[in-house]
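Key result, reporting period 2: structure in, sequence out.
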């Protein structure tokens, strides 16, 4: 996904729309958590002004990630909306918005692939759970306790003290 800067400048005030499919298989080597990734669909619009070239992108596809509980394969669909802006004229001062990053153009081409790959890597969730994964509610020496059970249960270290206050109450 490379774009010639001069070709984009010729657009003027026109908007260019595109819809392409790209392969990003090398992400499996960059992040071992990705077991497989489908070809990624990149749809977008290009806007050109006197000082900026902006790409409004929607990146969508599907990757296979391991389940956090069972390590089984989980299909994880993703759809990412992002804006990537490039400064055309270095002499013009651009006021960056709070979360906006403006890239510098190196050479005569704009390569969107590094930004697309970065957006995909940043969209990987910390935890994915297979829909059929079973969570154990107890085991040897442990169990899940609800809030009410925890409230009703007396700490074994305080059990004697609770008995003392119970006797004191009964004696009255």
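The corresponding designed sequence is given below.
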């Amino acid at each position: 996904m490379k774009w010639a800067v001069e070709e984009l400048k010729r657009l003027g005030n026109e908007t260019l729309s595109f819809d392409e499919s790209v392969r990003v298989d090398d992400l499996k080597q960059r992040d071992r958590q990705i077991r497989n990734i489908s070809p990624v669909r990149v749809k977008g619009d290009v806007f050109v002004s006197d000082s900026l070239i902006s790409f409004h992108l929607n990146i969508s596809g599907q990757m296979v990630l391991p389940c956090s509980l069972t390590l089984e394969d989980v299909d994880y669909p993703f759809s990412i909306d992002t804006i990537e802006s490039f400064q055309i004229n270095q002499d013009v001062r651009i006021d960056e918005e709070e979360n906006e990053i403006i890239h510098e153009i190196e050479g005569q081409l704009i390569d969107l692939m590094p930004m697309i790959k970065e957006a995909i890597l940043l969209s990987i969730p910390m935890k994915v759970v297979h829909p059929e994964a079973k969570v154990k509610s107890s085991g040897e020496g442990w169990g899940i306790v609800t809030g009410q059970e925890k409230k009703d249960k007396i700490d074994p270290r305080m059990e004697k003290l609770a008995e003392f206050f119970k006797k004191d109450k009964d004696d009255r």
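Residues 140-171 form one domain. Residues 159-171 form the longest helix (13 residues). This case is discussed further under Risks and Mitigation.
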